[in-house]
Specification:
557 residues, alpha/beta, FAD/NAD(P)-binding domain, Cholesterol Oxidase, domain 2, 2 domains, 8-stranded mixed beta sheet, 7-stranded antiparallel beta sheet, 14 helices, 26 strands, 25% helix, 23% strand
């Protein structure tokens, strides 16, 4: 039996935002910069008070804690040797910005120019670069391309301050293979090797909630309701007027909140698709199958789903202490002491230390791969549990996967997980890129510069050599890197797969927008966090009726 939630004050706001993740936190903060504007943010998860959220080294602990993450899994598939791949995403205030790897990586200019070429006006690289700069407070970066960075934004972006001789040797080896050293992959050119920039400052994670949402709550005009799982968008005709939600704990207590101006969905790629579908917006056949009346047919809702699929090559290390040893026993106590006193420590690291943006085939122009290296290794190559021996690992994924899948609600019940099928490595182009990427990872681990620290490769091991063997290894051991996009694709109304227009308004409906990574028409050559922040900054101007900043004037390469 469903029960009505007690009145929690005024239940009508100017805007209702579903989701307090990267996008929702930014949009809420920007909207209340206008005098008198009120916002209600609905968050299914709990507040972001757990210390593991804020200590970067707590990443592994928090990522697999069901109290703070949605423990989704993909559908088993022959493409992953019959495995269901775990896809945990943030379920707390801050969303995945409270649980992710904290890497700040924008991508290549061509990514956004491709969005504009699909008919999305104002989304070319010169148009979006001012929004990247607007949110960024770049700290350090003495070797940056200055025209590409901001210094007065809310999100602090810092350089890696913890260096390890194994990482230095890895970088030197990559340079020896012809990969240029690049201190600023977020500048003019992404190509190269170097240390990651990250959203960590003074030893702490700087989530979107911490940097945008929480400070804005001091206005008194943002109400954040935690434990509020959205069950449906409310409509009067084709006009969105509010959101119905359930208490996430008892699953029966019902609440409603109304919006005077707009409802904004920022639930993330998986949950935005599901919420639209159980609200009656999506492919008609699917809605009929799950017993939801069709409010508005949009064939693209839940389709065009893409993700980065990563595979790690793991090696046993020698000649130095890796993170595997530093994270245990007395050595861990020493690292904690360093962190407490503000010195570089493994507790203040992102999981990936070194980036390599390079090519899967020498004939390729530019970079079609991202590789990541750490002086650490995980059991069976999966980020989650460190190996018991000294280790290092190099993971790799294709920048722009061609394989597409879907996210489809199984039921009108918001507590039933959707069917998630990314179709990893389905497309032949993706298979070729993965094979080339694994061969690159091996070359990077077997350079003369790294040889003093390399004992032997443990995964996949020397017996895996042929293209078929490497692809089989990838299917068995690969997994997500949580870069989920595309299920509410941006595009003009003439595109039958588009869900939102270039102002992020849902086609055919009024006062309903989607602002999160689900609107990305194609995958950026990057981790998706930075682009999601950019999307939210740009959307905020659109919602507020503000003119966009002047397009960036960049000199040609």
């Amino acid at each position: 039996m469903l029960r009505s939630m007690q009145n929690r004050g005024a239940d009508t706001f100017d805007y209702v935002i579903v989701g307090s993740g990267a996008a929702g936190s930014v949009v809420a903060a920007r909207l209340v910069e206008d005098p008198g504007v009120t916002v209600c943010v609905l968050e299914a998860g709990p507040p972001d008070r757990h210390p593991y959220i804020h200590v970067p080294g707590g990443f592994i602990k928090i990522m697999f804690n069901p109290a703070y993450t949605w423990q989704f899994k993909t559908e088993p598939s022959p493409l992953t040797n019959g495995r269901a791949v775990a896809v945990p995403v943030g379920r707390t205030v801050g969303g995945s910005s409270s649980t992710n790897g904290m890497v700040y990586n924008r991508g290549q200019s061509e990514d956004f120019n491709a969005w504009a070429q699909r008919g999305n006006r104002g989304w070319g690289y010169a148009d979006v670069l001012p929004y990247f700069r607007h949110s960024e407070r770049r700290i350090g970066g003495e070797n940056d391309d200055a025209d590409y960075h901001g210094h007065e934004g809310k999100l602090p972006i810092t350089d890696m301050d913890w260096r390890h001789p194994i990482s230095e040797a890895f970088i030197a080896g990559a340079v020896g293979l012809g990969v240029p050293r690049n201190p600023d992959y977020n500048g003019r050119s992404q190509v190269g090797v170097g240390y990651f920039q990250r959203a960590i400052h003074r030893g702490l994670r700087r989530s979107a909630a911490r940097m945008f949402l929480h400070p804005a709550r001091k206005t008194g005009r943002i109400e954040v309701r935690t434990g509020a799982r959205a069950a449906s968008v409310l409509f009067e005709g084709k006009r969105a007027v509010g959101v119905r939600y359930l208490n996430d704990r008892d699953r029966t207590t019902v609440g409603e909140v109304r919006a005077r101006r707009e409802v904004i969905l920022s639930c993330g790629t998986l949950n935005t698709a599901r919420l639209l579908q159980i609200s009656g917006i999506g492919p008609a056949a699917l809605l009929q199958e799950i017993g939801v009346p069709v409010l508005h047919e949009l064939a693209g809702v839940g389709e065009n789903f893409r993700d980065h699929y990563s595979v790690r090559v793991v090696a046993r290390a020698k000649g130095g202490q890796t993170m595997n040893e530093l994270s245990r026993g007395p050595r861990l106590a020493g690292q904690i002491a360093r962190w407490v006193t503000g010195r570089p420590s493994i507790l203040a690291l992102s999981p990936s230390h070194v980036h390599v943006f390079w090519k899967s085939d020498p004939s390729i122009s530019g970079a079609d791969l991202q590789a990541v290296f750490s002086p650490a290794s995980y059991k069976e190559g999966f980020v989650g549990l460190l190996d018991d021996f000294p280790g290092m690992s190099c993971g790799v994924w294709q920048h722009r996967p061609e394989s597409t899948g879907y996210v489809r609600a199984r039921s009108r019940d918001p507590f039933t997980d959707p069917a998630i099928q990314p179709n990893y490595l389905q497309h032949r182009t993706d298979q070729r890129a993965m094979i080339g990427g694994l061969r690159l990872a091996r070359r990077l681990l077997h350079t003369p510069q790294l040889a003093p620290y390399l004992d032997r490769e443990t995964l996949p091991g020397p017996g895996v050599e042929s293209d078929d063997d490497l692809l089989g290894f990838a299917r068995q051991y690969g997994g997500t890197v949580w870069h989920l996009i595309g299920t509410a694709r941006m595009g003009p109304a003439t595109d039958p797969t588009a869900v939102v227009d270039d102002h992020l308004r849902v086609h055919g409906l009024e006062r309903l927008r989607v602002v999160d990574a689900s609107i990305m028409p194609s995958m950026p050559s990057a981790n998706t966090y930075a682009s999601t922040i950019m999307i939210a900054e740009k959307a905020s101007d659109m919602i507020r009726g503000r003119s966009p900043p002047e397009a960036a004037q960049l000199s040609p390469d």
